[in-house]
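Co-fold these.
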Amino acid sequence: MSAMTLSVVLIVLLALAVVSIRWLAALDERNPIGRFGTPLLFGVWVLVFWQLLVDGFDVPRVLLPAPSVIGHSLLVSLPVLAGDFTQTVLHSALIGLVAGCALGFVVGVLIDRSPFLQRGLLPLAALASAVPLIGIAPIMVMWFGFDWHSKAAVVVIMTFFPMLVNTLAGLAESGHMERDLMRSYGASTWRTLWSLRIPVALPFIFNALKINSTLAMIGAIVAEFFGSPVSGLGFRISTEAARLNMGLVWAAILVAALAGSVLYGVLGWLERRATFWHPSIRSGG
Amino acid sequence: MAVSTEGKSLWWRFGPVITIVAVVLVLWYATAIGLNSAQVIERTLSSQPGWSALDLARLTLSMDRPVLPAPHQIALDLVDSVFGWPLASPRNLLYHAAVTSSATLLGFVMGTLLGAVLAVVIVHSRTLERSIFPWIIASQTVPVLAIAPIVIVILGSFGLTGLFPKAIISMYLCFFPVAVALVKGLRSPGVMELELLHTYAASASHTFWKLRVPASLPFLFPSLRVGIAAGLVGAIVGELPTGAQAGLGARLLTGSYYGNTVQIWSALVMSALLGLVLTGAVAVAERALTPGGRK
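Predicted complex below.
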């Protein structure tokens, strides 16, 4: 294709893209086609231009492979990437996420009744949020070896504090009226906790879960930069980038991105099911 | 609380934290002795029959490459590396902290600008809001740091190395909290305020600068604190895949290559201190710039 025809095609397509996106965006807020279609269409147009520009200007594959190249690598290396997915997502990230969140939640419930421990731990949790906890990764790799255990340990440390802080904030959320009502029923502390305070705390807990799902993926992938067995998404990304095999690097990133989004989406779905009574969910948000 | 004496309220303020820190330190020493004892017994004590528990404790807390260094070893290494070498020497941790923080700050500035531009665009265009905003949110469920090696390879092929690629990674981590908070903040003025400015015949740019921007500041600063902490993580991780020569991430990496645990821990403590300094600086700016102070 000559430069002339290419630029004409690009301009026409650009106009088409702008018009079609504007048209979808102008649809009603409640129309699902407008709500989900607009970002989807935007993404499709980005892919189209990406492919055209990379092909048209002969961008070296090392710099930016075309979507078709990435798709091809994805299909060809599917078994390899499936192994990486199991290692990084199912083992390191998920096990670490569950353990870290469970630990944060249990500690939150336990120290909820002790203002002394709360005043001692909350400043440390605030401190931990300013600190790059990911740096603990090389130490964990030394202690727990190259396999997923060390990555899960990093994830546990990263996810513990957000869960602790949110659990405490959530447990403090139930009002005096409700607590007094529970007392007038003769409910025990545990019964009050179970039937009133934990349900009220759920929006906070889900908030922490969603923050932590992102942190878990980051922790699991970055910890692999410090040493890992011969599988894992972080390992794949760093070794293939060093070999300039960018198609596979982008395919691995795509897998990581999809895994992160699905994890986040599942948590969002669970949140809507579990906290259906909350105003932010009821109003359809 | 009002009747409590000065000393009591001081204890109430700092006592719990001091207690927890003290407990952590004691546990740390106990764990250090526990984790290091196997090596000490195998390497040294097995050849000297009749060693006491005191010998064990002394040796476990002064190993060269312990599994877990004792807090005082880390503190000594930190002090030695900060004061024992000239500032420009690669053995000085402050030099590495300066390398990392310059990348963080550059990335923070670029990320804040990018986030601000995105937020202004999103607030003013419904089309862009609907098409871009979901992707901005989706971009954060993606493990952003996974792209670090790519950014470094791509920019490296353009001859850009050192500071700039790391700053790009920091930027990627910084822009999101800023963009989301600014969208919220710029939209926070109510109908009342907007209509008041309308009755003043204020232009769109006046409304933006006199109403929307000041109203967004309380939303902006907490996100800046999150952003700069995330940017520091980005800069540190950006130093990993290239085998960078300088920076706290490089110190972590060389420490882990050579099994030099004390070096890892002191780099870790230094990056924690850097994180505190950076977020503290943002908090100071917040106090100075937000009328009426922080809530």
